[in-house]
Amino acid sequence: MTQGRRSILVVVPRVPWPPRRSGFSIRYFPLLQYLCARHSVHLMIIGDREGWTDDCPFGDSCAVEFIDVSGRPPPMAARLGVIARSVLPGSAPYSMRSVWTQDVKRVIAAAGRRRQYDVVLWAGPEYLEAALQVARHPPAARCVFDLVDSPSLIATRARKDGSSAAEIKATRKWENELRSRADLTIYISAADAAASGPSAPGRTMVLPNGIFLEDIGDAAVPLERPPGAPERYVLFFGHMSFGPNVDAACWLANEIMPALREKVPGLKLVIAGHQPAPQVQALAGADTLVTGSVASIWPYVQHAAACIFPLRLASGLQNKVLEALAMRKAVVTTRQCAAAVGAQSGLHLLVADTTEEIIAASLHVLSDADLARQLGSAGAKLVLSEFDWASLTKRFERALLEAPSRLSRGISHA
């Protein structure tokens, strides 16, 4: 890779701090930390001023600018514009439209007039109506989208919750136009990268999330049992206001745990993670502990009998699966979550998709200590060898800076 500091504009939908604030922070804290140490980074944050704290390290390592899209009602003209765009041919699907599109585009265009950037990186699948407008006239020679999760795959998996076939088709069309405008599009998993169809060679990349090895430490070193934790429990953890997590936790508590407790008397469920939705809070009771935010998730993971992640709506790689495997825990999860990690059922974890399958697989690991240890050992070996941020950040930087620009290929952005 060509050496030297580059000028990089990074557009993010929220403050990527603290590192475990959200799945986005888990991904972008290490990536930005690495880029800021080696390049001149202008970090542009869309809204989320309330998420900024004085101890955020990016205040010292890069230039930070907020695009004000929160804390005030949108102008009437912007609201009318969203309605008008909804009836125009080729308009953005509903999930991609925003009243703040023109504000975001205006601020980014102004930044491009003030400074010459080598790369503009759009991080995350939010504000994509604005992202496409920026890509049509990018403020840099190289334009990279890290969509993380495929909007098409999200729409497809959410169809039972109301997404229409027309919405899915429109989402796929817009995602493909985004990809055609970008020099490189990055996804968190192979399933996400393939969801909207094939792309030109070298124009897409899969970059999974990694593990903070220093955060985990040695999984074999005993940690103190968390205060109030049951004697024997299975664990589900994550951002507990995130829709797919809410769905999975309710499914686990209401349909799976009663059958497990019949076979394993005294078994409890612990649901750990910040901002539990009302539906999750309602699960709390004699057999279910809902912790809310915890100082550290690792004691809960280490003392769990198993981690059960019945995620049927989530797309892409799940950090919780990586983290449980890294802690040598026996994991039961759905086929799509296992595939995103590259895990084999029966070797690294157990795969189950229906209520009956999840109950059977969970009973298997709860009743067979040797199997649980074997799965935990193999799962940890997989994760620690393939998902270390130390190597992933280098891959990310290389792809970001070496992707041939569309200008160098003679392709116009206009």
Could you explain the architecture of this structure?
With 414 residues, the protein is an alpha/beta fold. The protein folds into two domains: 218 residues, Glycogen Phosphorylase B (Rossmann fold); 174 residues, 3-Layer(aba) Sandwich (Rossmann fold), CATH 3.40.50.2000. It is built from 17 helices and 13 strands. Helix 1 crosses helix 17. The longest helix is centred in the middle third of the chain and has 21 residues.
Radius of gyration: 22 Å
State which percent range the strand residues make up: 15-25%
Which term fits the overall shape?
A: globular
Arithmetic mean pLDDT? 88
How many structurally independent domains?
2
Poorly predicted tracts of residues = 407-414
The CATH homologous superfamily of the largest domain is named Glycogen Phosphorylase B
Q: How many DSSP E strands?
A: 13
What is the chain-wise order of helices and strands?
EHEHEHHEHEHHEHEHEHEHEHEHEHEHHH
| CATH architecture name of the largest domain | 3-Layer(aba) Sandwich
CATH class of the largest domain: Alpha Beta
